[in-house]
TrEMBL record:
The lineage of its organism: Bacteria, Bacillati, Actinomycetota, Actinomycetes, Streptosporangiales. Pfam families: SWIM. It comes from the Bacteria. It comes from Nonomuraea typhae. Residues 398-433 form the SWIM-type domain. Keywords: Metal-binding, Zinc, Zinc-finger. This is SWIM zinc finger family protein. InterPro entries: Znf_SWIM (IPR007527).
Length: 440
């Protein structure tokens, strides 16, 4: 599925002398929908790392790590929450998510909201020349542009924007919210570790804590974090000259996704990498159990107006404000995440609000397994027997263990739950909830 989004910029983003102007496309702000919203105007107090971080973010958006091929270009998403600018992008293959949280700002917040910013070729060349002590003025919005062309022509870019971006944002949010901090290295240790990583595109290694360091090894170990496709964190390397610390996040377990966060002066640069280079985040299926609840869509409508682009959204505070249980709040945040409205910041252990210009009605289309599961339930294909179920399909009867999520279908045998539940498990769990709510 591909949605075509037209990005309209009053003029290209530019860096003229010390003045950086990031042109915005349409988006949403606290004041409502805007054709070209204005968010911030002022100084970036740490110019060199900010320029390098924006280049790294753009590099991720331009790169296809799995089966590389040219021809990709996408514009990062930027959200202003009143205290920082969060800039986000996905790689062309969907397996790497990048975010730059820029707080080194001294100026005026004009509005809060989300849009896309134009990072073009000439701007990239100019950012690469920003030195350590160079002043840098940042304007996010069309009215803050320093126009360097004489005609001022509107730039229209018809961009085929894959639905996997929306699905990827939601999956990263759910996956990351289950991670813990596994290691933190100071600047010199971080530099030494990252430079020790193999450069081979398909290399899989484990980062294992060892005193104040991390060591690289080729086999799993207790407390280790898997990095599949070590070359996928290459955009961290140009930032090492500014690095104050490296934090590594992951779950307890073997081969899976991981998150790598560099602390820079006045900002953080974060990379999330999928379990394998061939796997994009959009197909991980981590959101499906939350979305399968009957209340998620209605609860999302209740929580949506409470978000308000707050810098940090806490589940407990939302539960108190809405009267919902924490479990229902998390399910509703997942529903909002599938519409691009919620992300997760591991450093702050909190959700954050973004607002992408997408139709909420696309949520069902973005999750075909869930749509198929609901159709199976509606068609009476599920027969429950305690914690087990039989799901009748055109391909035969599938036997499901409702609790552990196992199934006799090909999907489960291929993935063993590592990419979320199959449609038969989802159908059985939906039917089990209905049976509890409406006893026979």
């Amino acid at each position: 599925m591909t949605a075509v989004q037209a990005y309209s910029y009053a003029s290209p983003s530019t860096l003229d002398g010390s003045r950086l102007g990031l042109s915005t496309s349409g988006g949403r702000a606290l004041s409502g929908p805007q054709a070209r919203p204005r968010f911030f105007s002022g100084l970036v107090t740490e110019a060199a790392p900010a320029a390098a971080g924006l280049l790294a973010l753009s590099d991720v958006a331009m790169t296809r790590y799995h089966q590389p091929r040219p021809g990709w270009t996408r514009d990062p998403v930027v959200t202003c929450d009143g205290t920082r600018l969060r800039m986000e992008s996905f790689s062309a293959c969907g397996g790497v998510y990048a975010r730059l949280d820029l707080a080194a700002l001294d100026g005026d917040v004009l509005d809060r909201g989300t849009t896309n910013v134009d990072v073009n070729g000439p701007l990239r060349e100019a950012l690469a020349r920003v030195g350590g002590k160079d002043p840098l003025h940042l304007g996010v919005g069309a009215d803050e542009m320093t126009v360097t062309t004489l005609d001022g022509a509107v730039v229209e870019k018809k961009v085929p924007l894959p639905a996997r971006w929306l699905r990827g944002f939601a999956e990263v949010q759910v996956i990351a919210s289950g991670f813990d901090l596994r290691a933190e290295l100071t600047g010199p240790h971080a530099v030494r570790f990252l430079r020790s990583l193999p450069r081979a595109a398909g290399a899989t290694v484990w980062a294992v804590p060892s005193g104040r360091d991390l060591r690289v090894q080729s086999a799993p170990a207790a407390g280790g974090v898997c990095l599949a496709g070590a070359a996928r964190v290459a955009t961290l390397l140009p930032l090492l000259r500014f690095a104050k610390a490296l934090r590594v996040y992951g779950p307890a377990g073997d081969s899976t996704a991981s998150v790598w966060e560099l602390e820079l002066p006045g900002m953080r640069y974060t990379l999330a990498v999928s379990p394998r280079p061939s796997r994009g985040f959009s197909g991980e299926g981590a959101v499906l159990d939350h979305l399968a609840t009957d209340e998620a869509a209605g609860d999302a409508d209740l929580l949506g107006p409470l978000l308000a682009f707050d810098p940090a959204i806490e589940v407990g505070a939302l539960a108190d404000a809405s009267g919902l249980s924490p479990a229902r709040v998390r399910a509703a945040l997942t529903q909002l995440g599938t519409a691009g409205r919620v992300g997760y910041d591991l450093h702050e252990a909190a959700y954050f609000h973004r607002e992408l210009p997408y139709d909420r009605d696309q949520v069902a289309e973005l999750n075909p397994r869930l749509t198929s599961a609901r159709a199976l339930v509606a068609g009476g294909a599920v027969r429950l027997d305690g914690d087990r179920a039989e799901v009748t399909t055109s391909g035969g009867v599938r036997r499901v263990d409702v609790k552990d999520g196992s199934c006799t279908c090909e999907w489960w045998w291929d993935h063993h739950g590592s990419r979320g539940p199959c449609k038969h498990v989802l159908a059985a769990r939906i039917a089990a909830r209905v049976a509890i709510e409406v006893p026979a």
